[in-house]
Amino acid sequence: MVTAAELLASAAFRDGKVAQAFPSFGSERMGAPVTAFCRISTISIRSREPVGHPNVLLILDSTLLHQMDVFRGLSDQGIVLMNSTRKVEELGLKDWMFQHPEVEFYSFPASDLAERHLGRSISNVGMVSGFASITGALTKESVQSAIKEKFPGKLGEVNALVADEAFEYVSSHPVQA
Amino acid sequence: MKQQIEGSQAVAQAVALCRPEVMACYPISPQTHIVETLSRKVKAGEIGNCQFLNVESEIGALSVLIGASAMGARTYTATTSQGLLFMAEAVYNAAGLGLPIVMTIANRAVGSPINIWNDHSDSMAMRDAGWLQLFAEDNQEALDLHIQAFRLAEELSCPVMVCMDGYILTHAFEAVDLPVQEQVDAFLPPFEPVQVLDPQDPISIGAMVGPEAFAEVRYLAHHKHLQALEAIPRISQEFQEIFQRPSGGLLKLYSTDEAETLLLALGSVNGTIKDAVDDLRAEGWPVGAIQLCSYRPFPSHALRYAIQNAKRVIVIEKDLAVGKGGIVSSEVKLALQGLPTLVDTVIAGLGGRPISKAAIIDIVKAACLEGLEEPHFLDLNWEAINRELTRQAGQRRSGPTPENLLREMGLSGGKTV
Amino acid sequence: MSYQRVKFYQTGTFTVGNRLLGEEDRTVQARTDRTNSLNSGHRACQGCGEALGARYALDAVMRVTKKQMVAVNATGCLEVFSSPYPESAWQIPWLHSLFGNAPAVASGVAAALRAKGKTDIRVVAQGGDGATVDIGFGCLSGMFERNDDVLYICYDNEAYMNTGVQRSGATPARAWTNTTQAVGPEPGNPMGVGKNLPRIAMAHGIPYVATASVADLHDLEAKVTKAMSIHGARYIHIHVPCPLGWKSDPAQTIKVARLAVESGLFPLIEAEWGVVTDRTPIRKQVPVEQFLALQGRFKHLFHPRDEQALADIQAMADRNIHLYDLLPTKPAMEL
């Protein structure tokens, strides 16, 4: 999760942008629900407060959808990318989506994708690639490069395949809700 | 070379480039990534003959460095919060002995209640121990200050704390320019101790000093800090010449030209403050900011000069003198005595509560338009506090305050008392 | 044992050292070239066991290391009476930091020497029982666990003497101190408390642990000398009577120390890697009462006589004798 934010920042850096990523600091134990933030900009980033009004929301664990107010502060024209095998309409968000008609929702089975390639359902690489593909904010090359730096050797190459497939998936499944 | 890395990694790289000889570390969040990285580097043979000791406690850590430094080795450790207090005796001891130890403080709140998130209560607790205290605004400055710290420490024979906000900086992943070994070597020569344990020339270090000489010894420690007021800007200037960027110094000014109101703070919140200042200026408010980089020595003269004609200084501080109010603001007030400048105390960010740009903008406007109570607690949940006070007034045994408050805020279940 | 034990009952240690032994077997103190690491002029009390023990120990270290040594001292009597600013009785490189951190500071000195490639310079840490057994315990355990190349010497006078005689974790059963006064139903330090640091050191599995006493200065020197031939964490626990705190006659410091050994209350042993390797047998067992009676800190056991307490203390001595086989069953000539 923290890795996802770091991958975003790392890819943005490689694209010549300024990026800042940091976790919201819940309990220090591993496995607890975590939020991480990332700012990407063309000018220096000085702010240190958590991102209260995101433009994009990546939800890596869709079970959290109904446990906490994940959408709080999301821009009215924001984008939501959800890690789920279910279609958006199956996620019980009809009302919310009705109230926020300009928000774009994407559902994307990032964990599944990872499971097939890596044998582990870690969604960060898929989600980052999905984000890059949907928003165009990051180039595919930079995402791949960031992945290979974070995951050395064979692991990096497999993850790069995951990224590839994620980019493919998103561009061939353009629809959301 | 520019790299996108975690703050802790940046600091560890900088420290490694300074060629430390002995490091002794005890893990404590949020410093762990720093010491883990340094441990790996030493074990992999990347730092020459450096010795890394895994010690049994923080007082063990600093004590190991006291011995090593007295033996002429360049020494380093990192800690925070509870760990800093656990080594408090050694902190005073190291300063009194004049040992040029460099220590990172990954600023974190001090319990009880236990809290692992950022504020400055730990550094503040040790502010009078005799160490230099430098505060970093961002990770670039954090890594730069460590390099400057070894120079300062060894020139003055005085230990230095480099303070960086725990989690906010240590765990932030951002771009930094990492120096190369040649640059650091050009800036930081090998350690030449003023006094050292040497079988060829035996001396006794650490003798008892009675009333007839103690005050003089303490004055000389104070004098070192007065010398540091000159050394800090000079070394910052030298740093800029070699590394090609401004970094450190006593304090920094932002948008202070013809400012009537100045914000003043330590550490990372200065980033958010700058954004707030820009927004306020765009609305026509004559606001600027002072980033205090050196907290010890306290740069009174530089501050007086920086204030110029500003009418008020709003100090935003991440600490609380229980029973009194502001710590930084008190020192600012003292430095500005005789001047007509108003000084406001804003206690914010305790225990890691985020400080938002919006809140800063609001507080500036409130201060200028209505004035602030002294001290002002930013973003405090007065409802929860008043309910708790009412409960305490009505009932002698009302359970632990933190639990009651958490229940009030709906953050914890269980029966209400 | 690495030295030859010569039994001269009528004469003292110095006689033996000066005239009746071969060169190699004389004590360091018997030589004119002794280094006097702890020089005269310090402020110790008359009859101080610690000053005696420290001088013997450190001069032995200086001899073995050819003066390439550094000493780290904890706060306590030894530190206070030897370094009244601006004077110092130390003729060696000497560092005093805090009360509870001498083992860690010494670990740091050793680490610096390793970093600089100067491992021919050796490190000694020293402190009283309070600094070792109580407040410095954590740091000591850490030093042992890391097997840092430090010889730690504990001068055990069985209480916090420098601060006016308060009880420490090494204070023996039923002893008076100013925080275990001779009042109430169980006067003095309670029975059954206290830490045995030599056994705790052994439990850490370090290369060398030994106990020594100022009653047998040859043995003390020999053990220090042996310890310095070893690298890694080493511990020597020296019994040093304190006339002030024990309320004993300053002229009888060595006699009191000898009675502690001969009664079995303070066994002289050596251990390596956690296992006892040698002990000094008791020549002739002495009842604990003879030892206790010379010290005012035990006088409440005699007036009126507390038979139970005396029996309990005797039982402690007997346990030590059994545990370490201090009275070997074989007759002397068969050895």
Gist of the model:
The complex is a heterotrimer of chains A (177), B (417) and C (335). Chain B has 15 helices and 16 strands. With 417 residues, chain B is an alpha/beta fold.
What's the topology here?
The complex is a heterotrimer of chains A (177), B (417) and C (335).
Chain A: H1 2-14, E1 18-23, E2 36-41, E3 56-59, E4 79-83, H2 94-99, E5 104-108, H3 110-118, H4 124-135, H5 140-150, H6 153-172
Parallel strand pairs in A: 3-4, 4-5
Antiparallel strand pairs in A: 1-2
Helix pairs in contact in A: 1-4, 1-5, 3-4, 3-6, 4-6, 5-6
Chain B: E1 2-6, H1 7-17, E2 22-25, H2 32-43, E3 51-54, H3 58-70, E4 75-79, H4 81-86, H5 88-96, E5 102-107, H6 121-125, E6 132-135, H7 139-156, E7 160-165, E8 173-177, H8 181-187, E9 204-205, H9 214-243, E10 251-254, E11 261-265, H10 269-282, E12 287-292, E13 294-296, H11 300-307, E14 312-317, H12 328-335, E15 342-347, H13 357-369, E16 376-377, H14 382-394, H15 401-408
Parallel strand pairs in B: 2-3, 2-4, 4-5, 5-7, 6-7, 11-12, 11-14, 14-15, 15-16
Antiparallel strand pairs in B: 1-8, 6-13, 10-12
Chain C: H1 13-19, H2 49-65, E1 69-73, H3 77-82, E2 94-96, H4 102-115, E3 122-128, H5 129-135, H6 137-146, E4 150-156, H7 197-203, E5 208-213, H8 217-228, E6 234-239, H9 243-246, H10 253-263, E7 269-272, E8 275-279, H11 288-293, H12 307-324
Parallel strand pairs in C: 1-2, 1-3, 3-4, 4-6, 5-6
Antiparallel strand pairs in C: 5-7, 7-8
